[in-house]
Amino acid sequence: MAIVTTKALVFNAIKYSDSSLIVKCFTFEDGLRSYLIRGILKSKKGN
In CA terms, which of 8, 15, 43, 46 is 20 to 30 Å from 21? Predict the structure, then answer.
């Protein structure tokens, strides 16, 4: 697994479980790709 940093156009985002997203996007380096972004929807605030 590698960490990828690039600019992309997001076409679609689907909620996956409570805190993750499946994102379909277009990048100039890779073309049309889908990525699983884990933990993006978690709240950073404590109770």
Answer: 46
Q: What is the pLDDT of residues 9-22, one digit of tens each?
A: 999 999 999 999 99
The answer to whether the CB of 34 falls within 8 A of the CB of 23 is yes
Whole-angstrom distance, CA of residue 28 vs CA of residue 39: 25
What average pLDDT is seen over the chain? 89
- Asked if 26 and 32 count as a contact pair (C-beta separation under 8 A), the reply is yes
47's tokens: 């109770």
User: Which residue carries 């479980």 as its tokens?
Assistant: 17
Query: Tokens standing for 13?
Result: 């985002």
